[in-house]
Amino acid sequence: MKQENKNQNNTNIFNYIPKKYSSYVFDATTKYQKKYGFDMGTGEHATWNNEADAFKHAYMQAQLSLWAGKHISKALGDFHEFQGNKTMGQSKEEYNMDNWNNEQGREIAREIIQQYGILSTIPSQKINDIIAEKVVKRMKEGKLILSPNDRRKYENYKNNNYHSGKTTGQASPINQQQSGLFGYTNPLTSSNHIYTREEVGSMSSDEFAKHEKEIDAQTRAFNGAMPTNSDLQREAMTGGGVVYVNSYTRSDGTEVRGYYRSR
Fold this sequence. Notes:
Blueprint: H1 2-6, H2 18-36, H3 51-68, H4 70-87, H5 92-116, H6 124-140, E1 193-194, H7 197-201, H8 205-221, H9 229-237, E2 242-245, E3 248-249, E4 255-256, E5 259-262
Antiparallel strand pairs: 1-5, 2-5, 3-4
Helix pairs in contact: 2-3, 3-4, 3-5, 3-6, 4-5, 5-6
């Protein structure tokens, strides 16, 4: 197990089942705690309602966002918190704290992409160090929630059954339900068509030229990111903010390929 942990930085994290990935994140939290000196408990409460807890959630979501995209990262984070509510009796204050710090992690991932561009050219350990440095920076700036007693509220918390009142706090990049795609319309055309990397990549030069401005408008709305077919397929299959429209033929004989759109 120790040898396995040593080699995880050079291994695709998605080869690991959730428990092993959680173990990896705990080891990373311990490693960076020694470097930066943030508060960390002992035993079962080492990363519970403290600075290490905040670091762990932000670090994990940043890393998942960089490797799998923000939509999958958020879906996995939301599911993890749902399990915590269901099986561990997590309080609504703890739930709020974790979701706030998860969103901070996704924002860190967007920040890294904007600064460094294509990450495949950067060694994985270097990326991890960049994530950790940015998480600690936000911690020192007071942007993370370090205790369930913090009165700031996660914006999307109002969509959960635990709370029905007006909330305040960090704004999400796309303020909509689910992964941020529910009710999305293109800022330029008001279309609810959502372009994916694969769809754009399969376009002819003429097709791309025809839709280029609309694609650019979507990309800006998504803070420079573009979802993949896998992102939206997972979202559609789990009843999220998108649906798939099968290919069809218009009355004038025009063939329309299948595509994803927001609900």
